[in-house]
What we know:
- By secondary structure, this protein is an all-beta fold.
- It has one domain.
- Helix content is 0%, strand content 46%.
- It contains no helices and ten strands.
- The chain is globular.
- It starts with 5 loop residues before the first strand and ends with a strand.
Amino acid sequence: MLAGVTVTGxxxxxxxxDSSTIWTVTNFGTVIASATSADGIVFSTSAVLNNSGTAAxxxxxxxxxxxxxxGSARSRAATxxxx
Length: 83
């Protein structure tokens, strides 16, 4: 995602990656979970997350990022949870 772009999940999670692939997400914008107990980004399987840039932010109500398998999350920006 580019800087200045905001993604808010329609169902609950900001971004949800199913188990059909190993996901790679590079975020320079803002990802927000919309449900009261949701994570900002959820990967059902292995994933790579690069969260960087001065405007990058992943915000979840329960957790910022959840990975259901081995992976890596590199964050040079904010990843927060409020719950």
